[in-house]
Hints:
Blueprint: H1 9-30, H2 45-52, H3 56-60, H4 68-73, H5 75-78, H6 84-105, E1 110-120, H7 121-127, E2 133-139, E3 144-150, H8 152-163, H9 181-202, E4 210-216, E5 230-239, E6 245-253, H10 254-257, H11 261-264, H12 277-288, E7 294-297, H13 305-309, E8 326-331, E9 334-344, E10 347-352, H14 356-362
Antiparallel strand pairs: 1-5, 2-3, 2-4, 3-6, 5-6, 7-8, 8-9, 9-10
Helix pairs in contact: 6-9
Amino acid sequence: MAENEPINDAAAADDWAAALEAEEAAKAADAAVPAGDSEQRILNQDEIDTLLGFDVKKEGNGKDRNDGIFAIMDKSMTAYEKLPMLEVVFDRMVRQLSTSLRNFTSENVDVSLDSMISIRFEDYLNSIPLPALLVVFRAVEWENFGLVTVDSSQIYSMVDILLGGRKTSKPLRVEGRPYTTIEQDIVKRMVDIVLAEMSSAFEPLSPASFHFDRLESNPRFATITRPGNPALLVRFRIDMVEDRCGMLEVLLPHTTLEPIRDLLLQMFMGENFGQDTVWEKHLGKELRSTTVEIEAMLDEKKVTLRDVMSLKVGSTLLMDCTPDDPVTLLCGGIPVTTGILGRIGDNIAISVQDSIKRKLKET
């Protein structure tokens, strides 16, 4: 455009508007969706249900809802990692319990570990069929409680075997009545055996004493932790003669297992050497039977190197002590205790006068 040519305001405005439209069109082209997707993707109802974890098809098949946002909210499944040593403990308990129940019933009894899952305490109480017998036990060292539940099939089977009942393939279940005193006593004796074997199974890992606390028939009276707290549920299947079988369930809240959680996280026994009671006892036993060398020192004296170099056969070295002075006993060069020098027959003896433990505390 020449300098003397007049400016056309309308043409300039049109050029400015065209430039802005071209810029907006370029931005829209950059943000446009790829070819074939002319409009934004919208999820249908099935995809929304799957994302949230409420898949109707999976629920209809009886599977647990363990995916989507539901899995994030279900803290009982995700908040606690697996405890490898628990499988070792309960496998040992299965073997011991089989032998104990055989001796208790004088019949062939086979115990197997059915499942080990994590569940909310309230969900477990709601799943117990009534009538039921729940045994609350105390974990003395862990200062908390646990539950043992014996199902009705196992109770009636045990009553038939111990009291000489009819030999039928399926035990008779009487509906609409609570358990009798005899049935409760039999369950208590059976649970005492279970608790004793569980204490023995935990012993190599950590000392544990499980004691019977009370027997409840109403699940609401057996509340030992908060309803929303997660707990470990271990199911045992007990098979006996004449095709009699039943289930026994042990429930341990995670708060009960918290004192030994570090030990249960081990992949194998003895991983944490300093905290493994089995190796501590074994090491202590072996150390007590180890042979050590004890030295008896009557006195010490400082002399010059010239005097030492001048020593010859027959030279006499005078000590600043008497035969009645105490003798120091050393082990590995470390003073352990003191004693008085004496003689028994043709042998020289030392009578210990100071306590070894007191000597160690003083040092």
